[in-house]
Design a protein that fits this description.
By secondary structure, this protein is mostly helical. It has helices spanning 5-16, 26-39, 48-57, 64-76, 78-84, 88-141, 150-164. It is flat, with a radius of gyration of 32 Å. 1% of the residues are buried.
């Protein structure tokens, strides 16, 4: 197929022009995260008590020497393999899979830290804008020409005063007397 010199130049320009990536939105990321989460097997939240129990039970798995020696024991005697219900290869595959998911876990922590940091910066910028608006509005509200700003300034002052108040400490709960430990006279 013959191309005119003009078509060749247009095609070259299109190839040289960087393609814009679509804008990322929080809603789009949420949708993608939910889709990925639905694809991951065995994903489910644990209670804090369940996590603590599993951490204690999995303490041995953190010691590589114990794990490797245990795998050798599984391979050395078929009765051990039958008793634990895992072959050497299955156990090694579990270890490999665990390591790969740890990489995912680490990457997600880095991502969460980045998103959290970006939100912290956004909130700081919002606070600066709000403080500037209050400062400018307070100055302008002194002029009768900008009297419409007076109620806004007064409301912000009221809200700031409320925010500075210390919250009262919760009242201590009276303890019921312990009657089971009192000896009879």
């Amino acid at each position: 197929m013959y191309r005119t010199p003009n078509q060749v130049i247009q095609n070259q320009r299109a190839a040289d022009t960087p393609q814009q990536t679509p804008e990322v939105t929080p809603e789009g990321i949420l949708q993608q995260l939910r889709a990925v989460s639905a694809q991951i097997p065995e994903v489910g939240p644990l209670t804090s008590q369940q996590r603590e129990v599993l951490r204690k039970l999995g303490h041995t798995a953190k010691n590589g020497e114990i794990v490797q020696t245990s795998i050798s024991m599984i391979g050395a005697e078929d009765l051990v393999s039958q008793a634990v219900g895992q072959s050497v290869d299955e156990t090694r595959a579990m270890i490999d899979e665990s390591g790969r998911w740890e990489q995912v876990e680490d990457e997600l922590r880095v991502m969460l830290n980045g998103i959290s940091s970006a939100n912290l910066i956004r909130r700081q910028k919002i606070a600066v804008v709000a403080e500037r608006a209050f400062g400018v509005g307070s100055q302008l509200a002194r002029d009768p020409e900008h009297a419409v700003l007076v109620p806004h300034v007064q409301e912000i002052k009221r809200l700031k005063k409320l925010a500075r108040r210390k919250k009262p400490a919760p009242a201590p709960q009276p303890q019921a007397p312990n009657t089971s430990a009192t000896p009879k006279a």
